[in-house]
Amino acid sequence: MSDLGVLFFVTQHTPLSYDYVLVAKTINNQERESFRKQTEYIEELKKKNFKVTKIIDDNLVFYGIQAPKEIFEKYRYLLKVSDACNWNPEYFCYYSLYLLICTENLRELIKMKVFETKFCLHEVKCFVCLFLILGFKNYFGEKVALYFLWLGWYTFLLIPPAIIGIIIFLYGISYYKHSPLLNEVCNSNTTMCPLCDNGCKEWQLNDTCIYTKVTLLFDNEGTVFFAMFMAIWATLFLEFWKRHRATYVCEWKVSDWSEEEEELILELVNDVNCEPKKFKHSYWTSSLIFICLTIMILVIISLTSAVVVFRVIAADFLAKYKLKSLGNHSNISVMVLGGFLHYFIITIMTRVNWIVARKLCDMEEIRSFASTEKSFTVKMFTFQFFTYFTSLFYAAFILGRINGRPGNYVKIAGRWRLEECHPTGCLTDLFIQMTIIMVLKQTISNVFEFTGPWLCRLWKGKRTQKLQRKCAHCYLKDDSDTKDGDELCENCKLRDWLSNYRLNDVDSFSLFREFLEMVIQFSFTTLFVAAFPLAPLLAFINNVIEIRLDAIKMVTLERRMVPKKTNNIGVWLDILEAIGVLAVIVNGLVIGVSSDFIPRLVYRYHYGPCAQGTAAPDTDCMVGYINNTLSTAPIFHVNESYKYSENIPPGEQYKDYRSENDYSHTHQFWIILAARFAFVILFEHVVVICKFIAAWFIPSAPMEVKNCRLSDKLKRLKEELQ
């Protein structure tokens, strides 16, 4: 999957003589300031021996730009003598032209509307399926190629966890069908305490039979093994990715490439008297940005609190005015509504986070675009991580643990009680939240990501088709007859330039959006996988589609990205490693704190029918577990709390380990609490040790790659001696 199965499009080259195009609105009044600035900039390019061709089409002016050969010869020579890059003479770097043209001056002119846009020209004329990542590298440069290489590798390594996740899911199906816990709930005659203070009636435990089935699907012994496997898998994925990347980077001759040195070379090519941009740092600016980051994170957390308040109020309303269509599933309805509200907040906050992250980067005194991109990536991912996962952390670790007890419930505004967990555990709430967010994110984002640009191109395509009919004769020429320097006719140039102009715009952060989407998905796949073993399967299916849609979109629906050099995926690797470490902590807490795995173990070996070793051979050791997790509310407190006036059934129960007399925690509660913490510590230490062993055992680069690099360096040194 990393090398194969990726759709790509081969270029049938036409004799294009222009590498870059600037577009401006037609200005009839030559006295205007914008016309003067536009003319001055074009004349400045001509003074540097850039070839500029101007074509006017109605209200648009196109400037085709080609750099002189001597600039590229100088660029090639400096790269060749540089220690930071093993020069590959077959590689033609558009990035050099991009940096030479797209100076700060041009960016300011675009902001001032002197120029409307700028773009590289696509060279795609026919579609052929290629299954080599080399096609991406030759057309889009190493940066885009590494994205597809990483995505293909990630998708390929999702196959083992997807298969194991299916096995765990099937085990859950067989587990709940024969589980005595399901029989206890579905055949129970236990009366539970009301879900709200005023207007709610008591409810029967057996009303939640379906909810129990869903819980037991994912809260079983199999998920413990799966969580441990996924934590180790995250480390193996990253270590094998480093080896995989090293192989291709060595083949592309960019192992020692340095972005800072290349930028210095380009500055020198553009101006031999240039001075390097100085590194700057301000503690005052850094402190201000840190404060802004903290405030933004608190705002995101407060929005999660708003979702919690909504769920509490909705649960109270549905409990009082239960609709016949909902039956006894009002709690599940509240979870689903909360999940959809959370996704709506995610959609809105993604735009807000983007704006805030860009503004914070503008406040920093950053030397180069590479540093800007790294800073923006860290800020944007941090904002998105809190936006996506704060609600999940609440469902996993807070829900049902601070709600109080009968007679002393914790309430919002003294009126609405916090939500309670079902007697079989809280893991179903986390599962529902994850399912809604992950499914909606993948399906809706893919639909809009592809259909939006496609509809835009379809809507804009009428005029381009007319021009295509006018100049079709140019494309009937045999390419083999063309010579170096030959050009298309003006109509044909205009047709190509208009076709590219009417594609969707791309910018320096276009590839960032693709990476962000996949890294957020990686977080879903690893962090809370104990609650949703099918997450790797959904991720795999999504990625098989995503990798093809991205290729089609980049070639046919968007303007061409500026090909750029790189030899790694940048700060994303550090983020992925941080997620891998966090996955160990989170999954350990989910199993030890959120699930009922530990209480069941304690019951099995300390309180259940098999605890004393005297049970009959055919006795199920979990019989009576559900009743063991319930406490009885004293009748006078039930009266006081719920203000019932008549027919109060004695012995109403609630989920907790408390004394019937004074609500104090029982001895079993403290044993379970100690066992939970002991498990979390043991789980995390074992998995972390396994991660370190795996990282140490797997070299970051194959020996063939290291030997190849040594041979290349020796060869270059011998050539220099000659």
UniProtKB/TrEMBL annotation:
Entry-linked InterPro entries: Anoctamin (IPR007632), Anoctamin_TM (IPR049452)
Main location (coarse class): membrane
Example GO molecular function: chloride channel activity
Domain Anoctamin transmembrane: 137-707
GO cellular component: plasma membrane
Topology in the lipid bilayer: Multi-pass membrane protein
Transmembrane segments: 144-173, 223-241, 288-314, 334-356, 376-399, 518-545, 569-593, 669-698
Keyword terms of this UniProt record: Membrane, Transmembrane, Transmembrane helix
Localization (cell): Membrane
Similarity-based family: Belongs to the anoctamin family.
Protein name (record): Anoctamin
